[in-house]
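Next up, a chain.

===
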Amino acid sequence: MKIVVLAGGISSERDVSLSSGGMIYHAFRNRGHQAILLDVYLGYEGDTEGIFEQNTDWAAQVSAVGEECPDLEAIKKLRKDGGKGFFGPHVLEICQKADCVFLALHGANGEDGRIQACFDLLDIPYTGADFVGSCLAMDKGITKDLFKAYGIPTPEGFRMKQGEDVKANIQYPCIVKTCCGGSSIGVCIANGPSEYENAMEEAFRYGDEVVVEEYIKGREFSVGVIDGKALPVIEMAPKEGFYDYKNKYQAGSTVETCPAQIPQEKGLRMQQIAEQVFEALRLKSYARMDFVMSVDGEIYCLEANTLPGMTPTSLLPQEAAAVGMDFGQLCERILELVHR
């Protein structure tokens, strides 16, 4: 098949996306597909004729995910047209030539439903959730509202826009996070009023709306769902702090155990909730749900990820491996569930 692995972009998760894209690209090339890796924002400046037949290492420039977010302003300056529009040169043209686009995008303008809606209008087949599910899951405020409506256990909290004066009785410690972010970027734990103000300032750097919720002390887990069926539960135990950007992508920062060493009934309950979330948010193809289990054994769902990471340290591939599905097979399975 002719496959475009679409990655990059100008979200704070750009580097994570390129790392995911590089892994997926190599997996498809190794399995005999005519795959190319394309940066959705920077695009392609060359001749697109015969692009899928080119003997090029499209992932040659992909590097490991750093400890800090990328310099997006520097990336924007690389566009020769000054960055007019989100799609780089020839991106849509190349995607229309492909049999399928594998979305390896993370964060804004990739995981929020906008590209999915555009591809629907252009009749471009793509992987992952459609624009409805992507939009619902990307907004953590809407997600929390739907969790409550469907009886899905989730930490208590509220959302607020920049400039609003919310008269809330804030209990410390609490979690402050940007409403439409990912990879734990813009997420802070506040232990008191001064830390709360700093956390709000940090979260508003990445969006004009934030979610404030109660802090649940406990163990962190994740559950992948493919075609509505949950994979084994994986536990993430950071060696320091919580499961933030650094601990997610720096090898050796977190101890990950799959299947998680928890009582069977807890694991089954977590899988059941993950499948319920998949349905409540109108998701399709595949996704990954994040959980915390409190010290007294209560389970809370935090959020859903509609385009889970596929980097060397990512969780979904580890969960798939636990049921005998290697990385290449996982990519093929996702391809089978393409949204048309």
Summary: The chain has a mean pLDDT of 88. DSSP finds eleven helices and twelve strands in the chain. The first helix runs from residue 14 to 30.
